[in-house]
Design brief:
alpha+beta, 12 helices, single chain, about 325 residues, about 40% helix
Length: about 325
């Protein structure tokens, strides 16, 4: 199928899909822990499973009668990346710069400088298969958290008529989990436990590091907006097609993970999700599940305390008091 006839901003659009690949690859080259989240991550999980079930690449997939790509992949113009910066929590008193154009290369904002280097590295032309994809920064959208890109596809005159997508960067738990009441400690777990997907196209593959499906579902269930509900449906259908939720043990572990992330604040959402998709979630209202996963995954070995000897301060009057006592004792004798 001609990529120009495919719905824009789904991974059926090769320019969009390859942009995701480049973003993940550049972060990997710079040793920045990351995962793709949001609607694009759902698309990646759905396509990965469809390609495996049908034994085809993305452009050859059969979406079924009277169904379009957009019925299975919710279109989006946001490329949502959660990044893990060790430096972020160590920086004190460093203000975020709202515009990349005013971020100096010698800035003390270590994270801001890394973001600038990463974003600029995405610009360029990439000959892939029968096409040439070009990505250029959009001067009208150059914040440090939301960065716009303009696409060019087979565009020798550099007209770049396609507006492209917005790269949204989550830098810490306050970005990804601030809109929902999910324990901020999950942020690092989300980033560290990403899964690597390799999605086949006609002449190449798109490689991505993506948020685990159960974690992705938890965030979507908590948000519970109309687009999130569509994402949940598409992802559950894809997971069921591969049989990964068929067994009792698989469902028990799956439900336990969702309970730990979502309860007690989103117990009602999780209970509704279970009834909607005929899965027992084991929600007990009013009870907060023990945070066993967080404890297990974030546990650190305690360093043994070093023995410290406290030195007593020298008493400047000690000698005088001693000589005075000796004088009084001599006088009495």
């Amino acid at each position: 199928m001609d990529i120009n006839l495919m719905p824009t901003y789904t991974m059926g659009n090769e320019a969009f899909a390859y942009f995701l690949d480049r973003a993940s690859a550049k972060l990997g080259e710079k040793d920045v822990p990351h995962v793709l989240v949001g609607g694009a991550a759902v698309q990646a999980h759905v396509l990965d499973r469809m390609c495996r079930v049908q034994g085809k690449d993305v452009l050859g997939l059969d979406f079924g009668r009277e169904r379009e790509v957009s019925d299975v992949l919710r279109p989006t113009n946001i490329v949502d990346m959660a990044l893990g910066f060790d430096e972020y929590n160590e920086l004190v008193g460093v203000a975020d710069t709202s515009d990349l154009r005013y971020l100096r290369r010698d800035t003390d904002d270590v994270v801001g400088r890394k973001i600038l280097e990463f974003v600029e590295s995405l610009e360029g032309s990439y000959p892939i298969g029968n096409h040439v994809f070009e990505y250029v920064l959009d001067n009208d959208r150059r914040g440090t958290q939301r960065i716009g890109f303009i696409y060019g596809v087979d565009d020798p005159e550099n007209k770049r008529t396609e507006r492209g997508a917005t790269l949204k960067i989550e830098r810490s738990s306050r970005d990804l989990t601030s809109s929902v009441q999910i324990d901020s400690e999950w942020y690092n777990i989300f980033v560290e436990e990403g899964v690597d997907l390799k999605i086949p196209y006609l002449d190449y593959s798109v490689s991505l590091r993506v948020l685990k499906p159960e974690y992705l579902l938890a965030v979507k269930i908590a948000l519970d907006r109309a687009p999130d509900q569509m994402d949940v449906r598409n992802l559950i259908d894809a997971m069921k097609s591969t049989g990964e939720l068929d067994g009792e043990e698989e469902q028990r572990v799956f439900a336990g993970t969702l309970r730990e992330i979502l309860c007690p604040f989103y117990a009602a959402n999780l209970d509704y999700f279970g009834r909607m998709y005929e899965m027992h979630m084991g929600v007990k209202f009013g009870e907060e599940p023990e945070k066993t996963l967080i404890k297990k995954k974030t546990a650190k070995k305690k360093k043994p305390r070093e023995k410290t000897t406290v030195k007593k301060k020298a008493d400047p009057w000690a000698g005088k008091r001693k000589s005075k006592k000796a004088h009084e004792k001599k006088k009495k004798s």
